[in-house]
Amino acid sequence: MKLLIASAACLMTMIAIGDAEAQEASGWVTTSSLIEPSKYGDDFRHYDHADPDAPKGGTVNLAVQGTFDSFNPYIIRGTPAAGLAGFGGGLLYDTLLSQSIDEPSTSHPRLAAAYTFPQDYSFVVYRLDPDARWHDGEPVTPDDVVWTFDVLTEHSQLYREYYKNITGTEILNATDIKFSFDQTGNRELPQIIGDMPVLPRHWWEGTGADGNPRDVSQPTLEPPLGSGPYRIGEFDAGRSITWERVEDYWGADLGVNLGRNNFDRIAYTYFLDATPIWEAFKKGGIQDFRTETRSSRWAGEYNFPAFEEGQVKKRAFPTTSPKPMQGFAMNMRRDKFADRRVRQALAHLFDFESINRLQLAGQRTRTDSFFEGGELQASGVPEGRELEILEEYRDELPVELFTMPFENPVGGDRARNRENQRIAAGLMREAGWEPRDGAWVNAETGEPFAIEILGASETTNIIAGQFTEDLRRFGIDAQIRIVDASQYIARLEEFDFDMTTVVLAQSLSPGNEQRDFWSSAAADSSDSRNMSGIENPVVDALIEKIIFADDRDELVAATRALDRVLLWNHYYIPQWHSADEWIAWWDKFGFVDSQPAYAGVDFQSWWVRPEAMQ
């Protein structure tokens, strides 16, 4: 089955682009999907959940934990301000295409009006919308696109791995850019080039307000020129930033924007920790909209006066997208985690059932897959095409992977916990550790087994508090270390941690991004998402099978195989997820009641009611 499906009318339309090779392409693609045709068809006017007549105006106040010292999110150095994004364009920059909010693996036109590619997927040509403009009125050009590609792949590990198979770029004419690939058959690559933001070369290569040449490789607090729906207004470095709606925004009437970006101002205020944010939300005026992540708070703390009086609302919005993997990543760059049996032992000491009952108000579900929810999740024992793939690597995989379904250890009562401790003790002994005077030590060196769980907020105490107590009772010196946001980011970039909670979101069409998640090449790159430091040739091979899958069935089988290998190697201790997005807000907004089920909520489609603007 062909993965990339375009609007039928666009596929049949042949447009000469001045390049003989490109004219062999199958046609021009506008709205496209990697799974099935978009529900919007050929004429995408606006999202179903966006009201094209929504009023513009008003201010939305949001709160952020941490600090910021840069407006350049695409480099390692610096902490970017809220509203910017290390992947995608955030509020400031448009991307070539826009990932759909309400459909999986679907993209709509943005800076690019269309793209075309040959049947062997050896290259793609993107055509810019001739109306695309920077905020200074200058057109967005192919030169901007090529320059941005070079900048991102030089300075961002994420984009370097994402676009690894792109070998060159070529400007064909005033609107068209060709991207050439080093291999054929990378079926998602033509579409995901659309995820790339485009930066203004003329601004970044110009002179800054201080009279010095700007440098895109360095942090900056000079508000950059953008092309998106908002620009940076007032700010106080590290404390607050206000984004202002661009009234003459060139893309306001595009399908991805009509009825969205309705707030005149988006004002972020920074706090050092989460407790003051919650208190500020209850009082009003500093945080108008809140995504709740604390189960006990959602279940029992929305009883303050403003909520009781109806000034604050809350609602659980169901989501149909895959659930992210939230789990403890164990840093295998440290020898104590290198043995799979040690990691498996630690997993047996994590008592989710008790934590869910005592700390999470029973509202969470255990995560048992890196691709939780849907057909990509491994289940049972491998069979069919998945088994055939895994058989290629049988000698390099755990024996039980082929004979047993993967199941998280189950706790929740004394009998089960004692059994889990017995299993953990056996695994530790097999891995070369032994109990001495109530503590587990290396049998050869006598070094105690100690774990520091790194976090950036008091939420870490909820997530890891009971776990550390259980580890200590078992004989492992476990501690929680909470640092400020800047230190936390710096330590993650340097992989300076034993264990930390990581949240990794997946799509229903995994592909090139898997290299950044799990590959050996990403293990030692300081801004990669391979937090556990996985260096496994089987994982590397399975990633390539996913990326170069011939059809959907092959991609599903290869993804299930990867899921199973990741699970049985115990790189993470899976935690939990929720089926809903928990949202609370001050009653100043209007929105279309049927929010997008795939995303749960699209806050950029909400608006401030006119009477609340006064």
Q: With helices defined by DSSP (H or I, 4 residues minimum), what is the helix count?
A: 17
Biggest sheet record? 5 strands, antiparallel
Helix/strand-derived class? alpha+beta
Number of strands: 27
Broad shape? globular
Low-confidence spans: 1-23
Percent of residues in helices: 10-25%
Rg: 25 Å
Distance between the termini: 55 Å
Q: Please state the average pLDDT score.
A: 94
Strand content: 15-25%
Sheet with most strands: strand arrangement: 2-7-8-10-9
Structure description:
With about 625 residues, this protein is an alpha+beta fold. It has 17 helices and 27 strands. A hairpin with a 6-residue loop joins strand 5 (about 95-100) and strand 6. It has a five-stranded antiparallel beta sheet, with helices on one face. The protein has a five-stranded mixed beta sheet with strand order 21-20-22-16-23. A four-stranded antiparallel beta sheet has the order 1-3-6-5. Helix 9 (about 340-350) runs antiparallel to helix 12 (about 415-430) and helix 11 (about 385-390) packs across helix 17 (about 550-570).
Characteristic terms for this protein:
20% strand; single chain; alpha+beta; 614 residues; globular; 17 helices; 5-stranded antiparallel β-sheet
SSE blueprint:
Elements: E1 5-6, H1 8-11, E2 28-29, E3 32-33, E4 59-65, E5 97-99, E6 106-109, E7 112-116, E8 123-128, H2 142-155, H3 157-162, E9 166-171, E10 176-181, H4 189-192, H5 201-204, E11 230-236, E12 240-245, E13 265-271, H6 274-283, E14 289-291, H7 295-300, H8 305-308, E15 312-318, E16 325-330, H9 340-348, H10 352-358, E17 365-366, H11 384-391, H12 414-430, E18 433-436, E19 439-442, E20 450-455, H13 459-474, E21 477-482, H14 485-493, E22 499-504, H15 514-518, H16 537-547, H17 552-568, E23 572-574, E24 576-577, E25 580-586, E26 589-590, E27 607-608
Parallel strand pairs: 4-13, 20-21, 20-22
Antiparallel strand pairs: 1-3, 2-7, 3-6, 5-6, 7-8, 8-10, 9-10, 11-12, 12-13, 14-25, 15-25, 16-22, 16-23, 17-24, 18-19, 26-27
